[in-house]
Write a structure and sequence with these properties.
Layout lengths: L4 E4 L7 E12 L2 E9 L9 E7 L4 E9 L10 E9 L2 E11 L2 E2 L2 E5 L4 E10 L12 E4 L14 E8 L2 E9 L5 E8 L5 E8 L7 E10 L2 E9 L13 E8 L4 E3 L5 E2 L6 E8 L5 E7 L5 E3 L2 E4 L1 E2 L3 E6 L2 E6 L1 H6 L2 E2 L11 E15 L2 E6 L2 E5 L13 E3 L8 E7 L2 E6 L4 E6 L7 E13 L3
Length: about 450
Amino acid sequence: MEQHIKQYGHLKAPGNWINDPNGFIYYQGRYHLFYQYFPYAPIWGTMHWGHAVSEDLVTWEHVGIALFPTKEGDRNGCFSGSGVEHDGKLNLFYTGVHYHLADPENIHLCLNNRFDSCQMMISSEDGMHFDNFGGKKVVIPPIENIRQGDKTDTRDPKVWKGSNGWYMVLGSRSQEGRGKLLFYRSEDLESWSYVNQVSKGDGWGWMWECPDYFETEGGQVLVFSPMGFLKDGKREENQSICMAVDFKEDGCEMKMPDKYQYIDYGLDLYAPQSTVDEAGRRVMVAWLRMPEAVKEEGTPWSGMFCLPRVVEVKDGHIYFRVHPNVKKRYGRPIDNVADGGRNGYRISLCLEENGCLNVGGYQIFRRGDRICVDRTKVYRKGENDRMVFETPPVREGNQLDVYVEDHMIELYVNDGEYVISNGVYGIKRELYVSGGCGVELFGMEW
């Protein structure tokens, strides 16, 4: 991978393939965002951790590969995980995967879905250099107790510091094929003890990936990605949802309500991960799933991340507001969308009843108290692809902020009451508004 590639706004693959964000942390004066990375082709394969850094969550620099397979536990991939600071060191936790048998026609794939998963850690003195050959440790081996979790499908450690120790949550599944979470506790980040588990029974997906528990302004939040959550035969049945919960460190007891929200009502985002920013705000990013690779300047790539979002809870509802650093940078007034440059532009307006905003073929419209979109004209025509999306009934008005980039559009309704984000292809530099008021256009400031 070419080193030190700079990007602005949306963080994209530096080439080839990326998916889940990992190890997101503000450490030693910079934001570090690691990511699942296959450096050889724009397709899913043996996972490495790519690494990007930023001082403001807007200007990003790819700085190479941080983690790659070297041990028996991670010989077939360094999969998703998180990062924490302790005693000045950056400690990364991730899932190592070991295939029972690789596909002889493509050794980056597993035959018959038979593999073992363990939880591993590696530390760095500066957040930039990692000893992949001598610095890795297995902290939780493959689970043998079938009542506790699954040997194959237990993964994605999220670690945080509580009031009386370190805590870890893992995604897993039961013998009956129901998703669940496993909670562990540690005094030193190396020796971990199983404490408790939580599930919701049928109808909540067969495995829960990428769990993230945190406290933020207004309450406690759980985010996770149940596999097989939607059962309508459409693409992307695995989804990411969130809910306000009641968690007690003593015994790791968690009460989960029946009510949930999607993290994003465009249903393209997956595997979100959060951290705390320089000002103490809870900030989240997520992976945009792309069905086709993009080829720019001769380099194919697939996968990008949404803009960083501040997560807050208000009256039991979870808001995802675009980070103020991002909104500030998209603050240069422009007269035409063509003036936005390659890093895109922002549209701000109120949308009246039956109003419509056509952004280069991407349709945004209001029907009653719902905001809807249709990307049919700027997406591939796959039989099972999702094309039309809508929010639940909104509560606070009809103010929209739309961030437009060549391959991703993010629509924030009422400053994050709901968000719809979609991947797009072939969008035009055109804008037509009907039934809108207070329309303003902004490009990125330098």
